[in-house]
Amino acid sequence: MFITGASPASDMNIVPDTSVVIDGRVSDRIADGEFAGATVAVPEAVVGELEAQANEGRQTGWDGLEELQRLADLADDGEIDVEYVGRRPESSERRAADEGDVDALIRDLADDRGATLVTSDVVQSEVARAKGLDVVFIEPVGRDVESLDIGHFFDETTMSVHLKVGVAPMAKRGAIGDMHYERIREEVSTEAQLKEFAHDIEESARASPDGFIEIDEPGMRIVQFREYRIAIARPPFSDGLEITAVRPIVKTDLEDYEYADELRDRLVERQRGVLISGAPGAGKSTFAQAVAEFLTDADYSVKTMEKPRDLQVGPQVTQYTELAGSMERTADSLLMVRPDYTIYDEVRKTDDFEVFADMRLAGVGMIGVVHATRAIDALQRLVGRVELGMIPQVVDTVVYIEAGEIDTVYDVTTEVKVPEGLMEEDLARPVIVIEDFETGRPEYEIYTFNRQVVTVPIGDREDSESGVDRIARQEVEREIRSIADGHVEVEVRGRDRAVVWVEDRDISQVIGKGGGRISDVENRLGIDIDVRTFDERPGGKRRGSTAGSSGSAPNSNSAGVAVTPEITSRHVIVPAEGHAGDTVEVQADGEYLFTATVSRGGEIQVSRGSAIAEELERAIDRGQQIVVSPS
């Protein structure tokens, strides 16, 4: 393909590579007169590379295509000739562009045509000179990287700025725990404005030693520039060009927090496993930065694992991200580096928890940042991801941050004991005890009860009795329903006594000859059980019946979602879309069945033949409504 206007005056023949086309340096040199009248042979390899970048949503591709249009306009004006030469690179060659395959195609074209290669790539220029080619090396575009154009949106109270095409600029401003999302300019942002901002951000990150591109995926680029973490989203990933810039507005020291002395002593006593938890924006990362700075000053080797890297730590702390797309590989490398402590920001997915646990069990002090709405929720996220008995070895301290302050600190230990609320000594088992760090008072216990993991609030908490009673009722119901054919209900009356209501036809079967069968159940559960018929209950009615009903109606749990379980040959599968990784309760007609952690696929699988599966199947057979609700 040949584009020409009036015949140019020069016989100069040049072949530009991708780097100078992206920077717009060819048209600049034409305007300066250096390349005036030249024949510009644009390799199809350059066009293919730019087209691929533009299709991936990368600004460099669009910049290069704009330069090609400028060259076409100059050819129309008769100032140069433009010719497209060579072949397009194969997809395998484009994928190997970083290894020099595309650059080799461009050099070969310049050699075949006896043309001058024009490049801003120092490696390309050196290789071309070594092969005897004529080369014009143009220094890459220098930039003022002292500040970013979007910096004028920030003041001392601004944590984040949010820009989107067709929307007025917004910002989060205020103090930690008191942020307000507010409009900061009346006029809406245009696409041209946001493209200029994005170009400035991306080029500044490339040119500055204080900046880098953290993530570069089709439609999403995340840039770290000094204290700013900036996400640039483009269609089709987003419905419009959007720029979100975030920076910390507070840098703290550990002594700024409550329990500072105790936490300092705890962290230096030995390597610990700590979860820093809280809601988004609560100040978790700010506290993690303070801990990192303290540990560094205390002569510990500290590293971070982050994606993206946005903790504001000193130069002594090396910040690592995913290695070859995997935090597991990062962890393997860190074990060779042998840090004393590693800050893992953020621990969210099952793989993250597994990596955290592996490093902690290898002897590295680990501090993980976790999203949670309660302190206990942070610990429960380990359930099902780490073997229950190993949890206190992985995490021995939970710090809950709210509004920039330490709200709660839990100490996590293991004891072999009878769980709180149960009586028989033969019910002793390993129990994870979660104590309030300040008072030493037990707050929760986590243990296995009848093949399921339960978290029970204890002490004088308002919900402690209902928690224990709920589990006791569940276990008694399970045992009696395995004996009775008809309907069964249980009322727990105190820590060691329950009343069981059954149909008339089932009472002798449940009690057994000489009371032997019910005695076996009592011995297994450590609870005295009084078996009665529904006719003996005041009003003579079962819960859920029209008259005298005192139970929950099927639709009473507004916080839950009704689901339809699937029964396969091996499992009962309960769908729990939107709760992947969460701990949830499963209920039948408002009655508690069990608690479970939802898989990454958004479902709960219960093995058929287990007591839980049998109870769930009976509820399904009776047409009861199955509801999944947050625990």
From TrEMBL:
Keywords: RNA-binding. InterPro entries: KH_sf_prok-type, Nucleic_acid_metab_PIN/TRAM, P-loop_NTPase, PIN-like_dom_sf, PIN_dom, T2SS/T4SS_dom. Transmembrane segments: none annotated. Residues 534-561 are annotated as: Disordered. One of its GO terms (molecular function) is RNA binding. It comes from the Archaea. Residues 12-126 form the PIN domain. The keyword Metal-binding does not apply. Pfam families: PIN, T2SSE. CDD domains: PIN_VapC_VirB11L-ATPase-like. SUPFAM superfamilies: P-loop containing nucleoside triphosphate hydrolases (SSF52540), PIN domain-like (SSF88723), Prokaryotic type KH domain (KH-domain type II) (SSF54814). In the N-terminal section; belongs to the PINc/VapC protein family. NCBIfam families: PRK13764.1. This is ATPase. It comes from Halorhabdus tiamatea SARL4B. The lineage of its organism: Archaea, Methanobacteriati, Methanobacteriota, Stenosarchaea group, Halobacteria.
